[in-house]
Amino acid sequence: MLRIALASLCFYCFAGLFFQSSAQSTHLGITAHRGNSTQFPENTLPAFKSALSLGVDWVELDVYKTKDGKLVVLHDATTGRVGNQNLDVAQSTYDQLKKVDVATDFRKRTGKSSRECPPQTIPLLEDALKLFAAQSKTRVSIQPKTDCVAEAIALVRKNQMEKKVGFNDGNLAYMANVKKLAPAIPVFWDRPANSDIQEDIRIAKEHSFESLVINEKGLTEEKINQLKIARIEPGVWTVNERDDLIRFLDMGVARIYTDDPALLIDLKKVHQTVVCEGAYEVHLQGICTDQKSSIYWSWTTAIVRTDMQGKILASVAAPSHQGDLCYHNGKLYVAVNLGEFNKPAGEAKSWVYEYDALSLKKLNEYPVPELVHGAGGMEFHQGKFMIVGGLVPGINENYVYEYDEKFRFIRRHTVASGYTLMGIQTIAYANGTWWLGCYGKPAVTLRTDDAYRFQGQTVFDASLGIAPYSSTHLWIGSNVRLPGQGHVGRVRLVAIEKIAQ
């Protein structure tokens, strides 16, 4: 019977065992490059407000000085790239610049109408600072694009924002001037990909810069290690691709500049371990996702759907016992053996149960008698269901059973793996490889190519769940038993290269 009886306090106690600590340097974090500039025109108040609503750690913005001495937020020396007029900022007054609609290019690129994306004026730096002064979570990284450091610091002090700002740029003279005028304000020195890291470290330490922010094409693990040894925080600019963001999270980079902060926030949440809410009477059997917003957990006697942070959205009790599962076209499919896994041929029966993926209402049962030692796990790939199962001693190979979408048997594929304890429990396809999780002491993960030709095995436990995430990472399920409370499941992202070592 399904049991989800832990109090919230207890849940957060054990969740804390698995989540990485959020306590880190206050100079680190997700940096929204020119605001939430994927969804709104860059360097505008709506882009900044959106970034604030997302709860980013930092917003980076660019500053120029106008002909009449105003500090304005704009990336380029002229307005032509983003606006409907091409004015030189240094040769124009703010009254002239205010007439430029700097949302023009954004509407063209995104196809939005003026109603969907109203015209926007160039903000004053002071107006942006006041916006951030009204809250306590998000800080501002000011990038002076011209010699205006003293004026910018004066505005920061006028608005009592010294503890809510930092400065970043690649211009050494500007950044050194920040430390001369306001030593307590952090500096994030932007560096190109091909910069000399040892010379950069020497200069950064000489000027007490807090961080080196290196172009994404040049930041390597070796450079990160050198910066850590020097006690300078590594950062990276400007990263927008999902796989690249994951790669830098893997490297332990905590200061990441991105135009898509919402994506990075989601990746950072799931990049850490996700704990399934609740405790369960019997252990985890498998996991999968819909590649969007839900994680599915197959417990021995329950099916649970959570969001990407582990909060339960739906759950249903199930007969003992279920196996691994997969998602396809709005449905959830679960390999079922009713406790007869690894029985000799003729003693085990196997099914696939079909559920609605949102409500978890059971829809159908499909017998799969070809799995004579009990169904263990399943995956959907290229229009076919692939099912794996148990194995009895004396059989020195494993099998993958192929079915069409109505569970009509097509063929059996042989994996020349040698004997594995209890056969194969879980299966996933990612990056051109089949990944097969096996029980055992130690547990192993098998790999085959597209044609099920054996490629090797690794001592790595994926027997309680494995699912594709990206071209570089897999979801891996695991289980912890809490005495007197039950079993707790979790998933974490693991780099494919680590599993294949």
TrEMBL record:
GO terms for biological process: lipid metabolic process. Residues 28-268 form the GP-PDE domain. Keywords: Signal. The keyword Iron does not apply. The keyword NAD does not apply. PROSITE patterns: GP_PDE. Residues 1-23 form the signal peptide. One of its GO terms (molecular function) is phosphoric diester hydrolase activity. This is Glycerophosphoryl diester phosphodiesterase. It comes from Larkinella arboricola.
